[in-house]
Amino acid sequence: MIKYLLIIVAVIGMAFMFYPLVEEYSVATGLNDLANTYVYGSVKDLNMPNTVTAVVVTYRGLDTLGEVTVLFLATAGVGFLLRRKRKNSETRRHGSEILQTGAAFMSPLIILLGVYIFSHGHLSPGGGFQGGVVIASGILLLVLARVDFKFSHGIIHFSESLSGVGYVIMGVLGLLLLGVSSFLDPRYLPMGEYLYLFSSGAVPVIYSFIGLKVGSELSSVIDSMQAGGCDQ
Amino acid sequence: MPDILALILLLLLSIIAAVYAIYTKRTLSAVIASGIISLSASIIFLIYGAPDVAMTEATIGAGLTTVVFLYALKQTKGGDDD
């Protein structure tokens, strides 16, 4: 009885807290000042058709650096907790014939799609995070289909460290070449022509680094989940 | 109008999948139902004109999270059916 009473009190408290939001809500008729700056500045200053990428990589680039760091720490935690204990490839079954054939055909295409998504992040929807996850799902298909599939951990860790360091270096280059308060400003590389692949400064390079980093991190998460702690 | 209809159908689908995920006894079915919620959410984002978010939701929510849950289920031997 007292439990239900407490639940009702909690619901009423939540309603009281959120009531001002409902009361002050009105349908927006136009963009506010900040949104105007982003929408027009991404085309005018950065030569970039995809405003979302402009916000994520340039205007809020420091937040993205923090996100990548959070993802790195999560991956390190998973890799530490689920260490590879012993060879256990004998206990796993092979994937079916359909899965093996389909994986052999589809995985290169999926990985190519991931590379396309992160290298065209400034032109079309998507970007480093999405492309990296698509690459990791291609790796996952290979891991599911073939028992004897092993990717080199050295290459994975090397590409992850290289892209992390490269991301920070691209940010610091902006600081060095454009002056103070321009960390992660991409305008030190040539802006190029509008809607071309090599345009909008350093954004394609930065997003390719992010894509490589996310892809290798999530691949190593999948490998740890698959291999670690199976034998008790 | 077809947009509204599709939205209503997708929202109903997500509500049904959410209730099913809570009340089902089989953990595997709950994992699949949460994947269905993510998939319909990504289509809703696409209808509202946010393809970036839709892409993230479809790959991470419906793809990777489901697989990670399945691996965790296998390793904890938590499911009623293995």
Give a structural overview.
The complex is a heterodimer of chains A (232) and B (82). In chain A, helix 2 packs across helix 3 (51-59) and helix 3 crosses helix 4 (61-81). Chain A is 67% helix and 0% strand. Chain A has helices at residues 2-23, 33-44, 51-59, 61-81, 97-119, 128-145, 153-178, 203-227. Chain B has 82 residues and is an all-alpha fold. In chain B, 84% of the residues lie in helices and 0% in strands. Chain B has three helices and no strands. In chain B, 18% of the residues are buried. The mean pLDDT of chain B is 87. The interface between A and B is medium-sized, with 22 and 13 residues.
Summarize the entry for a quick read.
Helices cover 67% and strands 0% of the residues of chain A. Chain A is mainly alpha-helical and 232 residues long. Chain A starts with a helix and ends in a 5-residue tail after the last helix.
The arrangement of helices and strands of chain A along the chain is HHHHHHHH
| Secondary structure tally: strands of chain A | 0
Mean pLDDT of chain B: 87
Low-confidence stretches of chain A: none
Shape of chain A: globular
- Global mean pLDDT of chain A: 86
Q: Provide the β-strand percentage band of chain B.
A: under 5%
Fill in the keyword field for this structure:
heterodimer, A: 232 residues, mainly alpha, 8 helices, B: 82 residues
Question: What's the helix and strand layout?
Answer:
The complex is a heterodimer of chains A (232) and B (82).
Chain A: H1 2-23, H2 33-44, H3 51-59, H4 61-81, H5 97-119, H6 128-145, H7 153-178, H8 203-227
Chain B: H1 2-23, H2 27-47, H3 51-76
